[in-house]
Amino acid sequence: QVQLVESGGGLVQAGGSLTLSCAASGIIIDYNDMGWYRQAPGKLRDVVASITAGGSINYADSVKGRFTISRDNARNTVYLHMNSLKPEDTAVYYCNARTKPWDMDYWGKGTLVTVSS
Length: 117
Hints:
The chain contains no helices and 11 strands. By secondary structure, the protein is mainly β. The strands form 2 sheets. Strands 2, 4, 5, 6, 9, 10 and 11 form a 7-stranded mixed sheet that branches. The radius of gyration is 13 Å and the shape is globular.
């Protein structure tokens, strides 16, 4: 049974930083593609950052240079380090695992990030 548990969200002022964590169980993260998505009120869920099983990393244009995705294989945890936060980064952030070999998607329940101006 795959479980993804996000933590680290909260309220932060614009320009501040937060680090989100996604603790995975039931899968080995470095064998699968992992990602962070976000969904703001009234908007669709969009990818923020992703890291493939092979280690390739991609970011949404809106967060390039500010956010960093990383993984700790020993802890089986994926992180999203967020710097220079903006009010438009306010959203629920979800951890995603796309597991091999069938590309099955699993989601965490999300963690809320609120950036005040």
